[in-house]
Amino acid sequence: MRMKKVKLSPSCVFVHQNVTDIAAAEKNMDGKRRLQEKLDKMAQLAAKEEVCDVECFSDVIAFDVQKDVKYFAQLWEGSPPMAPPNPGYSESVQELKSIILSKAKQSTGITLSHFNNKIQDLWNALMNEHFVFSFKNTQEIAVYRKLEVQYENWTWALRSEMLNIENQLYPRIEKGQLDKVELSYLNKEMSKKYKEIAKAIVDYFEDDKDKVMLVQWRGRFENKIKEFHEELVRGVKRKLDEVIQQNNARKMLDKKKTEFENYLLQKSKELALQLKCIDDEEELKSQFSTVWSHWVKELTSDTKPIENIKLEEDQIAVLQDLGVEHKFIDDSKRNQIQISDRNW
Predict the structure, then answer these.
(1) Angstrom distances, CA of residue 210 to CA of 205, 216, 324
(2) Which of 155, 205, 285, 297 is the most buried (most CB within 10 A)?
(3) Is residue 113 part of a domain?
(4) By C-alpha distance, which of 108, 43, 45, 32 is closest to 71?
(5) What is the DSSP letter of 175?
């Protein structure tokens, strides 16, 4: 399918070797029919993955099931090592050679070096298809993709249920009605939905038409959904704990703020009585500023002062933790100084 994008039109011939009874035409016709059906099905599945408009295998690769399927007898006529070569085998090889050359004549000629480059490019393209080669065939890829879509649906159902639980708990936390959320509580609230999803997974793997292929991934996806559920519950608990902590901190701050305001108001009234005889406004401002600074310092005495940020020292510490040698750090610093000098 991708060859067409680079204007290459491939064709193919299928050769079945060691076919004992070449004369069994009816049997061979049945084999050709099943081959055609299989190829068409694979082409349609691959087209869906590649988002192409393809109905049958011959839409992708030039192929005629009546002309391009060959059956070869055994090479030896009898049991080796004393058996003579089968003349029918040589005739079949010669016929195949003629077919390949006749197909080659239908395209414009190219040099051997150009042909060599094309083969090399094709091989490199095939070797880079790591994902495709991790599956037995295109149908298996399609089945796995379908399973991934189902997994996304299952995880979304769990996320949606947990979001509903969160939305019910947030107002209670904001109103101060809830100051702790237990992991067991969240698990209990999620248990019904989790059991539904677990049953849906079992049903999918046991009832799907591709269950023979799906069985190889069942254990992995059951573990994935279990781990996802556990991490989802733990993550929401962490989030709710942070909200509770912030809510408590805000309440404490509001309480402290009221205490500070009342304290400063009381001190201001006392100071006003002491300074009521002073008429000079500038002196009043000076006296108030001095006393105000003292009050603020008194109220914030237990608050940790802001430390000076030593950015360069922190950078060096991080680089050393990552295993960067001190020599490279010094070289980098010198280069940075030189660049700054040139810019200046």
Answers:
(1) 8, 11, 52
(2) 205
(3) no
(4) 32
(5) T
